[in-house]
Amino acid sequence: MKKEILIVDDEVSILKLLNFVLSKDYNLVIKNSGVEAISWLEEGNDPALIISDLHMPYFDGSSFIHNLKVSGYYRDIPVILLSGNDDLTSVANNMTRKAEAYIHKPFNPEALKAEITKLLSQSHQHSK
């Protein structure tokens, strides 16, 4: 059975690329904002991993991750944060809650797949 990945991004080209790269190996759920994603999670959905864009309207990736990581229920879901920001390191350092991985856009599809595999194997070891 394929693992489920929640993708949170409002950029159509990135969504198409992620779908092309990942849909063969994973079930993808796509939400266009952090608000939609939180709402979907609160319906009882439990993805194996979340990929989120940093820059989104209304509820950016940083706020989204903060809300996930302070929640008792979602805090253990690994998160990959995508950003086109040139200085991703300073963005990461300034976040109050951290993602498990930060990947710069445009990204190398193979590097993203390798990071997903690594995080899923780590989270599987820590799950009950």
TrEMBL record:
UniProt-recorded name of the protein: Response regulator receiver domain-containing protein
Record's keyword annotation contains Phosphoprotein: yes
Pfam families, per the entry: Response_reg (PF00072)
Lineage per the UniProt record: Bacteria, Pseudomonadati, Bacteroidota, Sphingobacteriia, Sphingobacteriales
Gene3D superfamilies (alphabetical): 3.40.50.2300
Modified residues (4-aspartylphosphate): 53
Annotated ranges, domain Response regulatory: 4-120
Transmembrane portions of the chain: none
UniProt keywords, alphabetically: Phosphoprotein
Keyword Protein biosynthesis carried by entry: no
Alphabetical GO biological process terms: phosphorelay signal transduction system
